[in-house]
Amino acid sequence: MSIEDVFPSTSWSKTEEDIVIQSFSNPAIKKYLRKLALEDTKELLQLSAIATDNAALVKAHAVVQGKLQVIATLLSIEESQPVSSSN
Predict the structure, then answer these.
(1) Which one of 4, 61, 66, 74 has the lowest number of neighbouring Cβ atoms within 10 Å?
(2) What is the pLDDT along the chain (87 residues), one digit of tens a residue?
(3) What are the counts of helices (DSSP H) followed by strands (DSSP E) for the chain?
(4) Which residues have C-beta within 8 Å of that of residue 79, sequence separation ≥ 6?
(5) What's the pLDDT at 82?
(6) CB 75 within 8 A of CB 33
(7) Distance CA 53, CA 62 (A)
(8) What b/e string do you get for 3-35 counting C-beta neighbours within 10 Å, with b at 16 or more?
């Protein structure tokens, strides 16, 4: 089984792409994503390095780091501003 079998390639129409960009550019969605990032960060910070074994701490850090990278990617999506032409 190849990776293409598990995750088949899909194409997006311009309309679908515009909808996704518009959605993730919405200030309410950005606020929600920041809230998720804050909750994940707090959860990681609350783990005691003394009371938690190293393997569990490393795993928790990797999971939170992955979540934060995804959230950062989503937060970086911006609607492009139309270029105004000076006539």
Answers:
(1) 4
(2) 889 888 888 898 999 999 999 999 999 999 999 999 999 999 888 877 777 788 988 898 899 999 999 999 999 998 876 555 454
(3) 4, 0
(4) 21, 22, 25
(5) 56
(6) yes
(7) 14
(8) eeeeeeeeeeeeeeeeeeeeebeeeeeeeebee
* Spatial contact of 29 and 23, defined as CB atoms under 8 Å apart: yes
* Long-range residue pairs from 70-74, CB within 8 A, at least 24 positions apart, any chain: 71/33, 71/34, 71/36, 71/37, 71/40, 72/37, 74/24, 74/33
Neighbours of 51 (CB within 10 A): 8
How many residues are present in the chain?
87
pLDDT for the residue numbered 39 = 95
Q: How far apart are CA 58 and CA 52, in angstroms?
A: 10
